[in-house]
Design a protein that fits this description.
Two copies of one chain form a homodimer. Chain A has 507 residues and is an alpha/beta fold. Chain A has helices at residues 40-57, 62-78, 80-91, 95-117, 168-176, 189-205, 222-229, 242-254, 275-294, 315-328, 337-351, 380-385, 406-414, 435-442; strands at residues 6-8, 11-13, 19-20, 23-24, 29-30, 35-36, 125-127, 141-147, 151-154, 180-183, 213-216, 235-239, 261-264, 270-273, 306-310, 357-361, 374-379, 397-403, 419-425, 445-450, 489-495. In chain A, the strands form six sheets. A seven-stranded mixed β-sheet of chain A has the order 16-17-18-15-14-19-20, with helices on both faces. Chain A has a five-stranded parallel β-sheet with strand order 11-10-9-12-13, sandwiched between helices. The first copy, chain A, has a three-stranded antiparallel β-sheet with strand order 7-8-21, with no helix packed on it. In chain A, strand 19 (419-425), helix 14 and strand 20 form a beta-alpha-beta unit. In chain A, helix 1 packs parallel to helix 7 (222-229) and helix 9 runs parallel beside helix 10. The interface between A and B is large, with 72 and 72 residues.
Chain lengths: 507, 507
């Protein structure tokens, strides 16, 4: 049941008078619930509780934390249709996506539950003493990983479940032994509250300390800024825009005690298509990429926003085919009127740059918050002169660059900002000549996909979801896959400790 | 041979007119060489060369990089007595220390050479494809670690070899595949140039690209700031003061593309001594700690600057004994007149706080740059009211806190800033009651030593040299031990790559 209140630990609380409603973009109407922004007093209360809970929670065994995570998964499923309906009403996304994303969320929670049920993830090492070493004896030193402290997680607009309240950031931080305070996303506060209630139920059922989780609401910046500035918060997870992520990064860096911010931000995910690939598979690639560009209304961080080709006699036909196929796909609803507004204005901004030509755009009248898919094109020479064309257009948009040769294509890649992904579409006869492209791309991205699409981020150990700035604020970590737990822990060494006092896993 | 010039890649260069000399603190005279501060043009040239070299260096095999690191070690040894004499003349440290630190430096280089001779350190993982998985097939995803790009290393004042030109930061960054630009420490520019010449020789002998290493001189902030601001620099390593490290951190965080700064900064390394321990081993502990406080003239980042006791009938006698034994050790030379000046003023600042009593200090006339060892004491109640007593006094100084009971001792620990180390001196009968102290300490430090001294940092896999801020700027990494390589790399994934194009170690 949605109450519109914050969870300060396991207590519902609504001391504030500022309220906001969420919006149903498909029906183009406000939803009915009033959500109470947390007061600064409530923010402080949540952090103090988290800090208190940390003393106990960091010592709870991995096995118990694993039970907690599995219980969260169960309680989310137990929310049943209310969660699915709320999700749809607050995002405009279809039922299949709601159920699929819930499945992904549950899988993530269970993956981290499996991970921390044993101690292997801590990468413990033991260097035994060498008492007779010369010139001085070697001490016994044993290393493990320990949690940083309370983590603030900012929910993402585009994944109301999998990158939000109980998403990958929350699951990995709770798994590591860090209490979590979620700043709920104001576009889907109802979905957020339902999931928060599931986490609180799971915490109570599995005997976790009060304060291990809180859910904080607020539609402006005040609440989020207060959370990041709070001296007892020790790390931040964020998924969203470059401007939002950078603002939090700057606040965290200016604290008396700076704290790490793991922000997964913008990406245009360049796709390189070789001449051989277009020559052989033009129609197939156009169909596949029409699907990838419009998938989820283009609202994925791995959406292919930039396609790099080498201009020859086949290029124009390919671009036309891609644009027609993309705009032939029925337009879909965006997350919120503001997202639609930004999509239209950012798309227009890129397409109005000198040399950019709109190849196709849905121009017929469409429903209020639905997205008019757009494909534009520009020459490599023009692209190289104007970094405004690098900006992310969040939604079903792609810019196809026609490079005059491979050298220019490599120059384009080298001039890009950091990206989550890069994709190469190539034929076997290209393999011998791809090393320059692979090298240049590798230095700009976190993951390269071969003959596939960047959309779809597998949750597995080998996944890297992150990349050089501004794809993420710290490329040394991944936001997806079990490796995400490393963001919230630090190495710790015991020197010459008696066995009686060592953790079991270090003996 | 010392020339007083910068190494811009493998070329000696001295375009600037600003010069400085180093200082022999033992003789209390300037050394003869003039060192030319790099111009901003030379700084840019070094970074451009490094960026160019990175394209090739990141693809050079671990085996070849291993040969390079081993060759550096050999060339440093080949510098022979000139290096030892220069080291002594620029630091006031004795010959035994020079030779010992050279050994440590060589061991570090060889450790990283061993590490990267195989690919294990990259923590490669492979998730094979599951083409028939439902509802969608699983892609083949393989993860490895790749280097960030050119790294700037700031040499430390207190370890002219092991934490300087070819110290742990340089060795780990070169091992990872990152070119290195060292900002030489102006107190030991001659030692720095000699070591730099060894690195350049080794690079040439093993066929490394020009620009893989540069050595930049300058006595003020200008050169260092320009290096950290340069857009082609991708990470920074620093060992030194909190103010210096924080200044670099702030500059790096404000860049259009923020970069990671790994700064190992201040620490007072609390030592907890239980009542049982003092009751049984008072004299022995006093002797051991008199040695640890004065070791290397107290100029170690792990120097025990804070000793926490519980006040009872034995405490005063222990403190008196410790102070007398520490001040009975012959005073030793400090690194530089400025270091001596700061030691005296910081020691006086702590000792002048309300409630602090100087137990013993060397008051007789000593040589110009020698350190007057000092031990002071204060009650736990006074300590808790005044954070000025937490400040690091770099040199042979320790403050003994007399807590009224264990609860107050835990409160003191919880109120401390982050530390590199904590030490517990305890007897077997204490083990059952130590958990609160261990927990509190673990949350404030990177390493706990049991019944030992914090000075002496073993170079091994299980070492953590780092800790919560301000011990280091990013507690998620260690600066000592082979784990230090993780600071300079990021995870990278290949998705559905043909075997022909995968790195050998991922097949």
């Amino acid at each position: 049941m949605i109450t519109g209140k914050n969870f300060i630990g396991n207590k519902l609380s609504a001391k504030g008078t500022d309220t906001h409603k969420t919006f149903n973009p498909k029906l183009n109407v406000e939803n009915s619930f009033d959500f109470h922004a947390a007061t600064l007093e409530e923010v402080d209360e949540a952090v103090q509780l988290a800090s208190q809970a940390f003393k106990e929670y960091r010592k709870i065994s991995g096995k118990k934390r694993s039970e907690f995570l599995n219980a969260i998964a169960d309680e989310i499923l137990a929310l049943g249709d209310e969660l699915v309906q709320t999700y749809m009403s607050e995002s405009g996304l279809p039922e299949g996506r709601a159920i699929g994303e819930r499945g992904r969320t549950i899988f993530q929670l269970q993956s981290f539950a499996n991970l921390v049920a044993s101690e292997n993830w801590k990468q413990n090492t033991i260097d035994e003493a060498i008492p007779n070493r010369l010139p001085i004896p070697k001490d016994d030193i044993r290393k493990t990983s320990i949690p940083l402290g309370p983590v603030v997680v900012f929910a993402a607009s585009n994944f109301p479940l999998a990158f939000s309240t109980a998403g990958g950031d929350t699951a990995s931080a709770l798994a590591s032994g860090c209490p979590v305070i979620v700043k709920s996303h104001s576009m889907h506060s109802g979905t957020g509250e339902l999931v928060a209630s599931a986490i609180i139920k799971a915490a109570e059922k599995t005997g976790m300390p009060n304060g291990v989780f809180s859910n904080i609401t607020g539609s402006g910046r005040i609440v989020g800024v207060a959370l990041v500035k709070h001296p007892k918060v020790k790390a931040v997870g964020f998924t969203g825009s470059i401007s939002g992520g950078r603002a939090l990064f700057d606040i965290a860096a200016k604290r008396p005690e700076p704290i790490p911010v793991f922000a997964e931000m913008g990406s245009i995910n360049p796709v390189i298509i070789t001449e051989n690939s277009i020559a052989k598979k033009s129609a197939e690639i156009a169909s596949t990429y029409a699907g990838s560009i419009t998938m989820g209304t283009g609202q994925f961080c791995t959406n292919p926003g930039l396609i790099l080709t080498i201009e020859n006699e086949n290029t124009n036909e390919f671009i036309k085919d891609l644009a027609e196929k993309a705009t032939a796909i029925a337009p879909q609803c965006m997350l919120h009127p503001n997202i639609k507004r930004d999509f239209v204005s950012n798309g227009a901004s890129v397409s109005s740059q000198s040399g950019v030509e709109v190849v196709a755009v849905i121009e017929e009248e469409i429903e209020a918050n639905f997205a008019p898919t757009q494909v534009s094109t520009v020459s490599g020479t023009d692209f190289l002169t104007n970094p405004k064309m690098h900006q992310e257009v969040f939604g079903p948009f792609s810019l196809v660059v026609r490079c005059k040769n491979e050298a220019q294509l490599v120059e384009v890649i080298e001039g890009l900002e950091g990206q989550l992904t890069g994709t190469i579409l190539a034929e076997e006869e290209d393999y011998a000549n791809l090393s320059e492209i692979v090298d240049a791309l590798q230095n700009r991205v976190g993951r390269i996909i071969f003959n596939g699409v960047p959309t779809g981020v597998e949750v597995c150990e080998s996944m890297t979801h992150g990349g050089p700035y501004p794809a993420s604020s710290d490329s040394r970590f991944t936001a997806v896959g079990v490796g995400a737990i490393k963001r919230w822990v630090r190495p710790f060494s015991f020197q010459d400790f008696p066995k009686e006092l060592l953790p079991q896993s270090l003996i």
